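Batch 3, record 17
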Amino acid sequence: MSTNKLPSQSEDFPAWYVEVVKRAELAEHGPAKGSMIIKPHGYAIWEHTQRALDDRFKATGHENLYFPLLIPMSLLGKEADHVEGFAPQVAVVTHGGGQELEEPLAIRPSSESIIWSTYKRWIQSYRDLPLLYNQWCNVMRWEMRTRLFLRTSEFLWQEGHTAHATSDEAVEEALRMLEVYREVAEDVLAIPVIKGRKSAGERFPGAVETYCIEGLMRDTKALQCGTSHFLGQNFAKAYDVTFLNADGQQEHAWATSWGFSARMVGGTIMAHGDDAGLRLPPAVAPIQVVIVPISRSEEERASVIGVAERIRSELAAQGVRVRVDDREQHRPGYKFAEWELKGVPVRVELGPRDVAADRVVVAERTGGDKAEVPVAELIAGIRARLEGIQRALYAEALAYREANTHEITSYAAFASGVAEQGGFWRGAWCGDAACEAEIAQRTKATIRFLPIEPTDPGTTCMHCGKPGVDVAHWARAY
Amino acid sequence: MSTNKLPSQSEDFPAWYVEVVKRAELAEHGPAKGSMIIKPHGYAIWEHTQRALDDRFKATGHENLYFPLLIPMSLLGKEADHVEGFAPQVAVVTHGGGQELEEPLAIRPSSESIIWSTYKRWIQSYRDLPLLYNQWCNVMRWEMRTRLFLRTSEFLWQEGHTAHATSDEAVEEALRMLEVYREVAEDVLAIPVIKGRKSAGERFPGAVETYCIEGLMRDTKALQCGTSHFLGQNFAKAYDVTFLNADGQQEHAWATSWGFSARMVGGTIMAHGDDAGLRLPPAVAPIQVVIVPISRSEEERASVIGVAERIRSELAAQGVRVRVDDREQHRPGYKFAEWELKGVPVRVELGPRDVAADRVVVAERTGGDKAEVPVAELIAGIRARLEGIQRALYAEALAYREANTHEITSYAAFASGVAEQGGFWRGAWCGDAACEAEIAQRTKATIRFLPIEPTDPGTTCMHCGKPGVDVAHWARAY
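Prediction for the assembled complex:
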C-alpha cells in the first residue's frame, strides 16, 4: 500500500476515484483496450450484491438460465431500433477453430435478440406464460474511453427477460423489478435512489418505456443505478413470437427486460467514500470487522493474538465477516490506514492492557471517537453496530442528495446552478425532444428521469416557455 | 411434454441422452454452431453445484476475482505448449466498435496466459504468496461436433489459479483442490470418482502434472469429472513472474490451475438416469419434493390443495425445495411421468381419502413401492429421506463402477473386453507414449488415469511386454 495521501475529493474527484480503486485493490486495467481485471476486494462487493439480487429474483418467482455469448449478426439485426442502438458498439468474432466463419458472430451487447428468437419455440399458448427468467453473465459494448467499473467494454451484470400475456402484466413486472433494484440499492448498497422513467431519447434501444433508479454521487453527479424496460410487443413482433390466448386468438407476447451491473461497485465507492478511502456498507463489505492485535514483545504477541482469535471466532459464529490482521511486517498505524482505505466498517484494536481489562478499542469507519468496549459487549452488540453503520451511511447519502436537489426557478438559474453546484435540478419540461437536446447540448446535463407516471408541472417549460407536460430531474451524469 | 416412451439406455444410450436432455428441459442447441442454451431445470443443477464448490473454495482460503474475456493473441502465445494446445480451438475477435482491431483478440480458452501476465505485477516478494484465486466464467474452445453439456464451444466453469513460493506447496494445493472436487462429485453429485494422474499425452497444455477425478457413466464409458494441474514454473517463466524469497534470492513462482465445469450436469444425467428419465441427487435437484394433489370435484380440489399447501410450507420451512403441481390441464398420471422424467427425488400424492386419513402416498424416484405415510411422519422425516436417496444413488453408482472395473489379464482379453463390455480396465503399463498411442489407436480406449504416485505393477506391460512402470486405468471415454 502506498502511504501517500489520497487526492482529496473536493480538489479532484476523478483522481480520487482512480487512486482509491487502485490502492484499495478493487480493480485494474486489463491488457486489451477497455478491459478490466476485478480484484478480490472489488469482486467480493459484487458477489454480495449478486446474492442480494438473486435471492430477491427467486423470491419474486424468477429462475436463472443461460444463453450463449455469441449471436449470429443476422439475428441481432431483426429489431430495428435495437440493432441501430448497439451496432456501433458490437465486437465481432470472424474466425473460429482456425477458419474464417461463414457468418460473423457478435459478442452479446445484451441478449434480447437471442432470447426472443428462442422464446418463439417456448411460447405457444397463454398457459406457457409468463416466462420469468434471468441470467448472470458478461456482455460487451465497445468503449474507447473507459473508467473502471463505470464504463468498460466487457462488464458483468444480470439481465432479466420476461414474457407476458398482457401489456398490463408486463408493465407491472417491469415496475416490480424496479422496486427490487431500489431495495437492493438502498437497503444493501445504502445508496438512496429515486425511481423514474426515462425520456424517449434516453430509452433502451427497442423499449417502449425505460424505468430507472438514479442516485447522486459525492461529486454531485448522477449515476444510473439500474434500468427496467417495458418492451411492449417490439421483440415479439421482430422475432415472430405469438401465443394462443384464452379466447383462442393468436397474439404477440409482451416483454420486459431489466439489468443491474457491476458498475454499482463504482457507485458504492462514489456514494460513500471519503478522503481516507472507501466506506463500505456492512451488507456488502468483504471484511466487516478487522481485529488489529498490538504488542511489543513475543510474549505479549502470543497472548494478544490468542484473545484476538477467540473474538474472531465468536464473531464469525454469528456470520460476521471478520479478519485478524496479525502481519508482523507492518506497524499498527499502517494497518489502520490500510483498512480505512479499504473501507472496513469496524476496526477493533487490542493491546496487552486491553487483554488485561477484558476490553477492546473500537473505531467505526463512519466516524465518531474511538471507544473502549468490554469484549462481551462487542460480541453481543456486533449485529446492531453493523446495522447502525449501514443506516448511518444511507442517512448521510440521503441528506447529501437532499441538500443537492434544487427546484428550477428559471433556465438561467438552472444553467449556472447545474454547472457550478451540480446535483439534481427539478422543473417543468415541455416534452419536446428537440428542446431536451438543446438544453443538454448547452448545459451538459441530461434528463435523468421523469416521474413514473407523467405529472403535470402546472407551469411552463423552463427553457422554451411552452406548456409543461412533465416534471424532469436534470443532472450531469456518469 | 411428449408422452412417447424414451429410447431405452441399453438399446441406444446416446439417443436416450439426447431425448432426456430435451424432454426434461435441461438444454437445447443455440443458433451459433456449437452453442448451448441452458434451460432453468438444467441451470439450477449447475447453480447448486456452484454453491457447493464455492463454499469449499472459500473454506480452503480462496477468493474470487474476474479476468477479462478477451486476450491479445500475442499474450496467449507466450507459453509454447499452452498456445500449441489451444491455438486450433481459439475464437478470434477481429472487429470492435465498427473498426478492424490493431491486434486480434482471442476469447479465453482458459485464463493462464492473462492471469500470469498479471501476476507479474502482483508478486514481488515471498510475503505476497500464496495467491489463492478463482474465477467463475465462460470460456470458448471451438468445437464442430457438439454434445449438450459434454462438449460445446462455449462452456461455463470455474478456474482456480494459484501461485506459490515452493514446488511442494503448489503440488499440495493441486491435490487439495482435487480432493475438493472428489468431495463435490461424490457427496453432492453422488458420482463415485477415482483420483488419479494423467499420462503425459493427456496432460493440460503447459502442465507438469495433471491430476483428475474420473467417473463411470451408465453406458460403461468414462467421464473426466474435474482436473487440477501442477504447472511447475512454466507460466512463471513464460510471463517472467519472479519473487524475492526469504533468503533474498529471485525465484520463479510455482503454479497450479484447476477447473470444474457445467459438463458435470451431463455427468449427473449419465451417472444416475434410467429408462424413465433423470434421477437427480437431492443435493442438486432443483425440486426435491413435488406434491401432486388429486381430486375429482371442485370441492375436493379446494380441500386437497389447501392441505398440499400446508405440507409445502412446512417442508419449505425446513429448507426443502418443494413444489405443488396444481395445474388443472394435466391428469395425475401425466404429472407423475413428467416429474419422473425430470428426476424429482420424492413425489407426494394426496387425494381426498388421504386428506381424511391425514396421510399421503409417497414414491421415491430411486424405486421401491409407493407407501402410505402419515403427514407428520413425512414432514419430520423429509431430511432423512432425502439423505437416504442421496446415499442410495451413490451406492448404486459405486456398485455399477465396481461391477465394471476389470483386471487386465492379457492384451487380447483387454482389447475384446473394452470393446464389448466397456468399463475400466486396470493393468501394467510400460510408461512409453508410443505404446500408449498404439493401444489407443487400436482399441479407442485411453489411459484415464495413473495412480497419484507412480506404482510398480510388478509385472510387464500388457501390450509391449517391456517392464511395467505404472498401473493404468484404461477406458473408452467422453
